[in-house]
Amino acid sequence: MKFLVIGSGGREHALCWTLAASPLCESLYCAPGNPGIAEDAVLVDIGVNDIDALVRFAVDEKIDLVVVGPEEPLVNGLADAMRAAGIKTVGPSAEAARLEGSKGYMKDICRKYGIPTAAYTRVDSYAEAEAFIQDHGAPIVVKTDGLAAGKGVTVAMTIEEALAAAQEALEDGKFGAAGRELVIEEFLEGEELSYFALCDGDTALPLASAQDHKRAYDGDQGPNTGGMGAYSPAPVCTDAVEKQIIDTILNPTLAAMKAEGSPFQGVLFLGVMVTDEGPKLIEYNIRFGDPECQAILMRLMSDLAPALLACADGVLSNFDLRWYEETALTVVMASKGYPGAYEKGTPITLPDPAGPNGAPDPDVVTFHAGTTLGPDGGLAAAGGRVLNVTARGHTVAEAQARAYAEIARIDWPNGFWRRDIGWRAVERENALANPVSK
């Protein structure tokens, strides 16, 4: 079969790395891809939002299945255009993609169909925002309605911080059209997790849980980012919690979208807060998370390709997947200054893939997220999040140690990374291994 993956980040590298290993894969293309992806797929120089060119390429090359990585082309209707041209595609229609494309729409769906989430209001003027924030106090959460590359959410611990976030979006235009309307919602206490499922419009096939690290610096300090690291599975996602997520959020969402006339087909990502009252939905994403995807796919024992085909064909009801029991953990290496301004083009030297012991380590992979080739042909940084070092281990601590050992072999003076990815899970492991006697 011929596969086309859309995107250029670490998530897409992980997807290509996984699909390239499938016995079904005859040819694999990625548009536009990156230098790391080029090791697994043929790169196609077409941007993710050039829908007409992507469809023409898929038709001309007789692509059997398109897998869309990022959210923006899905919101812009790429999956609709592919299907209209007769190309099987994993990804929701533009209508269904509104679950991520509009936080206001997402909250309204939850309210209409009784899906547990934080109480909220929608505002489109600073005066409305100010009145609501002053009335409800802090902590409080301020979100842009539209897509803002993961940077449109402010968890405000003070009223002043919340008002500043509302002013930046509504009056200063910091986020452009995405910030012309805001969702302001209650702050939820608990532990956050990400939960993923493949959906074919009628059936949801649960994939795995993960936990992301959004803050830029150790100890969950600093500004929110697109994600500085992740690990899977998330220990907070116990069997009981997972059942609640499936019964109260995942399956009702599929039923709701079908009732709305926009059946959801593709990867559904549930951002969930596990509160004292049970799991509550924070957000939907309409694609694999990044960097959660990298950790999840390191744990997948089954062939991903047949599952994606079953998703596109609407036959997930009789499908199942097998997973490695081990933990997989991803550490994001980012350009200094991210998520603010950062320098591009800084040189990176990766170690010999054979590893320190002379043989490749199947439990450690470095996925490229924001790389390019410099004028001298060497590897260089081209984005904020640049490399995703991913490792598997029998424990979270073992996976963590392997990932950081690999990072120590990478020469990139302009890079920075958190040094505590997985800290919650490691603390849990230590507590279980060393119970305090009473």
What is shown here, in short?
By secondary structure, this protein is of the alpha+beta class. It has 13 helices and 22 strands.
Please provide a written account of the structure:
This protein starts with a strand and ends in a 5-residue tail after the last helix. With 438 residues, the protein is α+β, with helices and mostly antiparallel strands. It has four domains: 2-90, 3-Layer(aba) Sandwich (Rossmann fold); 119-186, Dna Ligase, domain 1; 191-318, D-amino Acid Aminotransferase, Chain A, domain 1 (2-Layer Sandwich), CATH 3.30.470; 327-433, Alpha-Beta Complex (Glycinamide Ribonucleotide Synthetase, Chain A, domain 4), CATH 3.90.600.10. It is 30% helix and 27% strand. A hairpin with a 2-residue loop joins strand 15 (265-275) and strand 16 (278-285). It has helices at 10-20, 51-60, 71-75, 78-84, 98-101, 103-113, 126-136, 159-170, 239-259, 292-299, 304-313, 396-407, 423-433, and strands at residues 2-7, 27-32, 42-43, 65-68, 89-90, 120-123, 140-144, 153-156, 182-186, 191-200, 204-212, 215-217, 221-224, 229-232, 265-275, 278-285, 327-335, 364-368, 371-373, 379-381, 385-393, 415-416.
The separation of the N and C termini measures 61 Å
State the helicity in percent bands: 25-40%
Q: What's the helix count?
A: 13
What's the CATH H-level homologous superfamily of the largest domain?
ATP-grasp fold, B domain
Question: Which descriptor suits the 3D outline?
Answer: globular
Rg calc: 21 Å
